[in-house]
Amino acid sequence: MSAKKKVVEVEKELKPKLRIKLRAYDNKVIDNSAKQIIETALRYGVEISGPVPLPTEIRKYTVNRSSFVHKDAREQFEIRVHKRMIDILNPNPKVLESLRNLTLPAGVDIEIKM
What we know:
The chain is α+β, with helices and mostly antiparallel strands. It has a domain at about 15-55 and about 85-114: Alpha-Beta Plaits (2-Layer Sandwich). Helices cover about 30% and strands about 40% of the residues. It has three helices and four strands. It has a four-stranded antiparallel beta sheet. The chain is elongated, with a radius of gyration of 21 Å. The two termini are about 30 Å apart. About 10% of the residues are buried. The mean pLDDT is about 85.
């Protein structure tokens, strides 16, 4: 029973946080976007954790160079998806509003969770 009480106490101590996940094909673009988000959050004086680089997702494709013949002649392509995660602890409404109005470059996918 004491373990359950400890779990309940830990859950009460948890602070609300805003989790932002960024995805992009270009690592420079995603780093600039993360920097822009962090500067916006720091302007309102909230605590930040990150940006944490998550594992890069690599998709590889192998394609025959010619159709029906020359099976040994193939080309290989890959797409790399870079990911970053930022946590904003104790967000206030001003931070949420400024993050919604933030314009990020094309090619950056942003996902915000409470």
